[in-house]
Write a structure and sequence with these properties.
Number of strands: 17
Distance between the termini: 26 Å
Strand order of the largest sheet: 8-11-7-12
CATH architecture of the largest domain: 3-Layer(aba) Sandwich
Structural class: alpha+beta
Helix content: 25-40%
Number of domains: 3
Number of helices: 18
CATH topology of the largest domain: D-Maltodextrin-Binding Protein, domain 2
Radius of gyration: 25 Å
CATH class of the largest domain: Alpha Beta
């Protein structure tokens, strides 16, 4: 579950930007003077700490291909050196671990022996609760008011519910790591298969079932084998996921969104205005009935119950499935790789199918994951915001006062970009004629700069729906002048992605949010893992026909008996006090 709460951490946030004044005050009331010139004539992005200050952090380093050049590392690379020389900020790692569980262990050990915590790190769930109970975190109210980028403050106000888990006695003890959130589900279909079988794009669940039947039975890949299914779906982790999700199927029958692998979501209002865990709401039967029918008819992979999103997408990429639900960016990866198997393959995104009563819906991707928190003993909160603001503003473009013009072309020449004939080149170095000795990496691939840029911020600073305006602008006029890095990123999308993004934006009002944004309750800690396992296994047993649809009622009874009733009371107690 802890791992699941961190999942949102990936995917698509664009790069970032910029700064602050050098200062005197931190939100804990302590003063720390630096010899940075407090020159009001200087632009706000232009700051430097002298002598340099050190900010400690920690990181989970699971895998970082293409992140560094030979001889460079997390602790010593072009960006750490640039920060020390130009900003006067030295990044030091208190620990580097390979698994999230190991990071949790480090924090728990520090709490157990009253040991030192990093100046800044990520926390959520029960670890966050323990830190708050132990009074180990720095209150941020004053720092946010004085030092935060206006766009960040605006987002914190607009999405105030994201702060409830880190607010105690009126004080804020962490910053949500926002996701862009504009990756809501679209329906991806092999358009060339539709055309080959003389089918129209489905607009309803019934029409979609007819398409799935044809894709499963009429050999659309043309290899003479019965090796296709209609729908590629990962059932190992339940109805809601980051790719291959089936939230749109649930949304065709109900406004109750479903998740079985995270007890924190989805909690939806029932007809009385109380919160109910969507996976046990009676409407879930309609979803399960549909999925069980499709499985029995062979419209889905019989091994779907063992597949995660990446595994499921492989089925689509290999030409063995013709429909998959997911975000707009799938038009490049992984679906773009289908042409390696079938050069004529063409995936296209379509609006979601409507249910029997015309209902359409999809899950709102969580707008935040875990939190960035700060040790109570941290003395340089203004410096952290200065760096965060600089990165955030890099998304927003040169008009933002925190934008650092030194990053106008990119972060570091020879790393995330090269210059050839006065042209900035970020990808396809060989095709662009860049000499091999000037490629960022010896194999010509692009560098993954996240590991250099974001150790202190816990990921690329992003704001909810910050890509929306750029998407709309370039969808209306693909030749419009590109003014910001976000617009440049949108401009770089392939045609399938841009079309899919347009579909996603047009159906944004269909998104159904999770209504519970509180802390991990005591009941969740005691019963959450068991209930998640119970829900996922019960759903699979019904979908595979091992249990009849009527078993759903028995599952619901078990859910409430073995902790669900306690959790539901806790969640609704929180909702009564925090409903917005």
């Amino acid at each position: 579950m802890k791992r699941q709460r961190r999942w949102t951490i990936f995917l698509l946030a664009v790069l970032i930007g910029s700064l602050l004044l050098a200062g005197y005050l931190n939100s804990g009331g302590r003063t720390t003077k630096n010899s940075t010139a407090n020159d009001e004539t200087k632009p706000i992005w232009d700051f430097q700490y002298a002598p340099p200050i050190t900010i400690t952090t920690a990181i989970v380093d699971e895998n970082r291909p293409n992140a560094f050049k030979p001889g460079e590392s997390l602790t010593d690379n072009v960006h750490t050196r640039w920060m020390e020389v130009n900003l006067g900020i030295i990044t030091k790692f208190d620990w580097i671990v390979s698994k999230f569980e190991d990071a949790d262990t480090k924090i728990r050990l520090a709490l157990a022996v009253n040991g030192k915590l990093p100046d800044t790190f990520g926390a959520g769930g029960d670890i966050l609760k323990d830190l708050l109970k132990a009074d180990k975190l720095l209150p941020l109210n004053e720092a946010i008011e004085k030092f935060a980028h206006p766009k960040l403050k605006e987002a914190l106000e607009k999405y105030a519910y994201t702060m409830t888990e880190v607010t105690k006695d009126g004080k804020i003890y962490g910053l949500p790591r926002f996701n862009v959130g504009d990756e809501g589900t679209v329906m991806w279909i092999r358009k060339d298969w539709l055309e080959k079988l003389s089918l129209k794009p489905p607009t309803t669940i019934i029409e979609l079932e007819n398409v799935l039947k044809a894709f499963s039975e009429q050999d659309p890949n043309g290899n003479g084998k019965d090796d296709e299914v209609g729908l590629a779906v990962p059932l190992k982790e339940g109805p809601w996921n980051w790719m291959g999700q089936t939230d749109a199927i649930a949304g065709a029958f109900s406004k109750q969104m479903l998740s079985t692998i995270d007890i924190n979501m989805f909690w939806n209002e029932d007809e009385n205005g109380s919160l109910v865990y969507g996976a046990v709401h009676p409407d879930a039967k309609k979803y399960l009935e549909t999925m069980a029918s499709w499985m029995a008819k062979g419209y889905m992979d019989k091994n779907a119950g063992m597949k995660d999103p990446s595994n499921a997408s492989e089925l689509a990429v290999k030409g063995k499935a013709g429909v998959i639900f997911g975000p707009f960016w799938m038009g490049a990866w992984p679906l773009g790789d289908t042409v390696k198997v079938d050069p004529k393959a063409k995936w296209q995104a379509y609006p979601l199918p409507a249910g029997p009563n015309g209902l359409k819906g999809k899950a709102q991707k969580p707008l935040y994951g875990i939190y960035t928190v700060f040790s109570k003993d941290f003395n340089h909160i203004e410096a952290w915001f200065a760096y965060y603001n600089k990165l955030l503003a890099n998304n927003l473009g040169p008009e933002d006062p925190y934008f650092d013009p030194r990053f106008e072309k990119g972060f570091h020449e020879g790393y995330d970009y090269v210059i050839k004939d006065d042209k900035v080149i970020t990808v396809n170095f060989e095709a662009e004629g860049v000499p091999t000795n000037e490629w960022p990496l010896a194999d010509g691939s692009s560098m993954d700069m996240r590991w250099m840029l974001f150790p202190l911020t816990g990921g690329a600073p992003a704001l909810p729906y910050m890509n929306a305006d750029a998407l709309k602008k370039l969808l209306e006029n693909s030749d419009a002048e590109v003014l910001t890095p976000i617009e440049q990123g949108i401009k770089g999308l392939n045609s399938a992605q841009r079309m899919a993004a347009g579909v996603a934006i047009s159906e944004q009002e269909l998104e159904i949010p999770n209504r519970y944004h509180g802390p991990l309750t005591d009941g969740m800690e005691k019963h959450g893992v068991f209930l998640q396992k119970l829900a996922t296994e019960s759903y699979l047993s019904i979908i595979y026909g091992e249990k009849p649809l009527s078993y759903f009622d028995e599952f619901v009874a078990q859910f409430y008996k073995y902790g669900g009733d306690e959790i539901t009371k806790e969640v609704n107690h929180w909702y009564k006090d925090n409903k917005q």
